[in-house]
Amino acid sequence: MEEPDYRSDPNKYQKFKKVDGATYRRVNQFLRKHTHITAREWAIARLCADFRTTSGSEMTFIGENLPDLCPFMVDTYTPQAVNQARSSFKKKVKKAGATFFYGAMCGFFTAEELDEILFEASEVARFLLEVEGTSLTIDDEIEIEDRIAEVMRSVAEAASVILKTRPGQEENGNPSATPP
Known about the structure:
By secondary structure, the protein is an all-alpha fold. The chain has helices at about 25-35, 40-50, 60-70, 80-105, 110-130, 140-165; strands at about 50-55, 55. The protein contains 6 helices and 2 strands. α3 packs across α4 (about 80-105) and α5 (about 110-130) packs antiparallel against α6.
């Protein structure tokens, strides 16, 4: 079966159909409750990934066809506005990642707590993928989750070792009551 040509008919683009009829405000509220991204950033990041070319993403095409490509977006965007939203999405993902890894590396979370955080995060991510019409095979999903969980276990273990070897740290990771 031949892939539809979205550039000649943006209405053939099938992502975000599960939120057809939802308002931007409603989608934005959901995303703000569960993530640090806006509906604008989510939609444009997804579109930039889907319309990636060898020279980058099709910023002009995405901006001009935004209401046709994404049902909760009502206005067209300039290529600069598309690029800004994509850039904002990337920055927020990097900041969230840095915050998460800091919490893991400083010993704030146990390995079990990290697993719980990752599970909750993967539930939200799976829901967003489902809503936008993107799917992963169950094997791919499990492989991704296993790889991330293994990395996080390694981070937690390494952080624990490092924290225990610091002067003035007791076994539980708290500063000792005795002066150095």
